[in-house]
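Below is how a single chain appears once it has passed through the pipeline. First comes the sequence as given, then the structure the pipeline wrote out for it. We keep one example in the README because the format questions we get most often are answered faster by looking than by reading.
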Amino acid sequence: MNAPLVRALGVAAFVALACSAPGAARAGDAPDSIAAGAAPSVATPPAAAAPSAPHIGRDGLEHLVPELEGNPYRLAPGVRPYQNRVSFSPAFGNLGSNRVFAFRFAFNPNEWLGYEGTLSHNPGHSVHALLHTLSALVRRPRPGRLQPYLSAGYGMMIVFPGPSLNADAVTKNALTYGGGLEWYIRGDLALRGEVTQATVFGSQRDRDGLVAYDYLQETIGLAFYRSLRP
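Resulting structure:
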């Protein structure tokens, strides 16, 4: 083989080595998976927590209070809780010899004391009355379904004459006192009966000073309880 051909082959080999050296170095520096041609992995952010599904009972209904699903009339063991609870109680009964409808709303700041506002309407033929009071309820919570309490309050009675009487409405002070009994159907619902004496202070024709008129009020209704978070 002549000298010019040998020199040409040597130059070609040197150029080939020079061109392939950087690619080999880069392939050596890369991870094995990339060198083998695999695509690099990309970190993905963690998936957001899925919202909790509503509680569906065996009857196929969504229960807002899941613990009442199995036995809705079961009471939790122990003393009935009253602290930080509110109640709404519609009722009907008698005020004196006439029918009365009452709506009560109460808040219990602790276990033994509650504050209650009452609005009672006594419809009548010739006159009708509206009695609104603010009362204090005192109780000693106990285990079981029966929960007695005492009440005392102050308010106003407004007597509205009927269309056949040409007279203005009359407003009188009133004191109420008495007690009641709750029978719990379940933890948030009770049957409530109450007997109170309403003493209304007014005047009488041809008589000086105040005259007290006593009315016995007997009602029965329901008490719906809800808890307030502290």
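Residues 201 and 212 are 5 Å apart (CA to CA).

See the next section for the split statistics.
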